[in-house]
Every structure is written in C-alpha cells, then in structure tokens.
Amino acid sequence: MKTNHSKNLVIAPMRRRSFLKRVLVAGAVAPFAPQLIFAQAGKATPNERVNLACIGIGNRAAEDIVAFDKTGLVNFVAFCDVDMGGSQTLKMLEKFPNVPRFQNAEKMFDKLGKEIDAVLVAVPDFSHFPNAMLAMMHGKHVYCEKPMAHTFHEIELMMAAEKKFKVAAQMGNQGHSEANYFQFKAWTEAGIIKNVTKITAFMNGKRRWHGMKVAGYLAKQEIPATLDWDRWLATAPSHDYNTGYINGEWRSWFEFGNGALGDWGAHIFDTCHEFLELGLPTEVNAVKLDGYSPFIFPQASTLSFKFAARGAKPPVEMTWYDGQENLPPLPNNFGEAPLDPNVPPPSNAATVSDAKKKPIGKVIYGEGLTFKGGSHGAILKVIPEEQEKDLKLPAVPKSPSNHYVNFLRAAKGHEKCRSSFAVAGPLCQTMALGILAQRVNAKLEFDAVKKQITNHEVANALLVGSPPRQGWEQFYKV
Fold first, then answer.
1. What is the distance between the alpha carbons of residues 439 and 14, in angstroms, rounded to a whole number?
2. Does the residue 335 lie in any domain?
3. Considering Cα of 124, then 156, then 171, then 380, what sign does the dihedral take?
4. Same domain (yes/no): 158, 184
C-alpha cells in the first residue's frame, strides 16, 4: 500500500479489477413468479405479509420501521443492531418487544434465515454494502437506505449482486414513488421537459461538520457496554472508538459517510438523473471547497458535473452547491423552492420555516422552459409560474404505492422496484465521484466506459477504497 502524504489518504491496491470483470457477467434478472394476489395495504393476513428483518433499528432506521409497519404488509421477524440497548434503539425495542434481537447479522441469518423474506438495511453509509450484500447472498430482498454504498466499486458489486441473486432491491429515496417521479416522467415523455443543458442543485442547510476543525481522527474513548464496536466498523479500517463517530456523526467523515451530497443528492436530482438518462459524468470538478480537510467534508462545496450527449439529448452540466452561505445563482423569479409536505426539515433545521431560509432544490434549464423543484416528492413548477397556464400539460398518474409498499409488492412479484439498484446505482456512482472530487480537491476526468479516473491516480484508487478488514473480504466475492 502507498500513502499520499499531502492528503493523508491510504490508497488501496487495484487488485479486484479481474474479479469485477467476472462479476459483471452475472445473469440478467429473471421475472418473479406471481404468487397469491397481494392484499391492499393494511388488509394483508399474516401469511400474505412479507417477513422482514431489520438491520439497524435506531435513528433513521426507526423511522423506516414505523413506515413499514404502517403498510400493514410486514411481519417483523428479527431486529439486528450493533448497539442493541443503546438509547437510540430503545423506542423500537419497546414498541416491538417480542421481535427476536441480534447484534450480529450473520448469526441472525444462521438462526432465522429460513423465516426471512426481505431485509431493511438502515445503518451508516459505509456499512450499507456488507449488510446488503449479506442479505442478497442469502437470497433476500433488500430495502437499503441511500446512498447505496460508500464507494464506486461497492455500488458496482451491489448492482451485480442484484442481478445474480435475482432479488428485489430498492434504495430508500422515497420521492421515487411520489408526485415528482410521475410528473417528471410524464412531462419528459410529453416533451414539456426537453433538451435540458443545465441543472443547478443545492442544499444549503446546516450540517453536522459545519464549524468543526480537526487535525486528524478523534481521541480514544471508552466503548459503551451496549455497543459492539468491531461490528460497527464493519469493512472500514480500524479506528479507536469516539462518540464523535456514532449516531449520525459518521456522516461528517470521509472514512464513514458521504456528506451532504450523498445524503441529499438522491432526494434532489434523482428524477433528473433517471428521466434525462444522464448516466455517469465525464468530468467532475471541485470548483470551490471552503475549509478543505482530508478527514471531514468541506464547510461549503461547489461541484460541476459534466454529462456527455446521449443520442439526440444534448450534453448537460449540473452544478451542486452546499454550505450555509454558498447559495446558488437562481433566476430572479425563482421565489421559494417547492416543499414536500411529507418530509421533515433536514437535521439541524428546527422547523420547515428554517428550511425555507436555506433552500433545498433544483433549477432545470430546458429548451424554451425553466423549471424549479424541491426535494423528495415535491413537484416541479415552471418559472415564471404564469407561463405554465399556457402549456398543454399531460395527465400525471397518481402513485399506485408509496416507496415501502412498492418494495413489498416487488418482493411478492407484483410490482418492480422504482429505485432498484440498477436504477439507483449510476445515480449513487455519480455522487461517489463528486465526493472523490471533494476528498482530493481536484478536477477529475472520468472514462465512463472503462469506469476509471484518467487524470488522478489517488482518486482512481479511491474508486475501490481501502481493502476491507480481515474477516469481511467475503462480501467482495459475489
């Protein structure tokens, strides 16, 4: 191994390339055999429900568990969390006292694997990969929180595993099953949104690392009695325990999280990425990084993504803005970004009103029309809005199922996951390339066919990342 001393980055050897080539020849997804007619949400009998195991039960995972419970379509058959009994897990343990509990997901599958149909993976960004791979290797359907994984290479393997193991796999960007998804699809097919050449995407809310200054990793602290720290680290390199890494604080660190872009990008420009068929960028440039650190995310970032022409569709430049004062240039008549009423404000924004002061959203510049949008399921508006009145807009169908029900119906073979790994993978790989530009503070030129960064050796090695710790290598062998 070699280290770039100026960036304090550990560079992983590119020893998995031949393996990856073998993985990518995995067979195509076979259609699911129809079973008994799946009942409507809330009316399923116990035998019609999906037997769901949950890896992660605190924080965001708890919200997912409540949402799955509300569908009336699941039986919870196992809870697994590396901090079982920590304060963040108590609410779900009290709400579902009879669900079997585990701290080790492999032991959970050894004991209850035959009873499990599907798995929720809602853990820190860097440990999405091993837990989702473990579930798919057992032939289980997977609902995985966004972003899919921590590195470009891990996302590649998860897409290959989805195909090989023929499972329903859904990434948890809920807006992909709400109004914006169906509107964007309808407006694109009708030619209302066409020949887009420019997208501005922004998330200017306060983040956990804003105001942080670090010179290295955090000092060793005593590990809580409830926490299996070794399992928490999963595939990541070994680190001493510190409370500054857990319960959401991991998102601040390149080693563990994917920053504001990985957290919110999938909620803001996911429909742009899918329905404009953007694919992978050819160039990602760190235009502006305030407070650069090789350890934590910048205090503010401006990133430029360039996408090549796709058939008759012209090239697109998408510019991403994060940071509390790094506000994007917006049209004079932009007004406020549309808000999805079902989505709470981002962490550290106390109210929806506070969130409005630091907008989250996008501007899409197409042929003859400009659109503004928010995040998640917030619908697009033409700007100026009076121009929308003169358009012959197509009918927009209502969603037949929310994101959780869509996954559960897909697990039964009656729908397809709208945010399958095949769909969400290139979106997450695009974000992973942006995060690499933040990490190395450089412009990256990317060969989307060979899937290599051609102008930056350090960043190219980081497509794979550090090799997994001993005992976790099996998840990189599909």
1. 19
2. yes
3. positive
4. no
Looking at the fold, whether 110 and 226 belong to one and the same domain comes out as no
Per-residue confidence (pLDDT) for residue 16, from 0 to 100: 40
Domain interval for residue 232: 177-390
The pTM (predicted TM-score) of the whole model is 0.89
The pLDDT, as a whole number, for residue 49 is 95
pLDDT attached to residue 359: 75
Neighbours of 50 (CB within 10 A): 23
Asked if residue 164 is part of any domain, the answer here is: yes
Looking at the 3D structure of the chain, how many domains does it have?
Answer: 2
Residue 441: which of 7, 12, 13 has the closest Cα?
A: 7
CATH number for the domain including 45? 3.40.50.720
> Which pLDDT score is estimated for 336?
81
CA Rg value for the chain = 22
Distance CA 214, CA 212 (A): 7
Rounded CA separation 100/97 (Å): 8
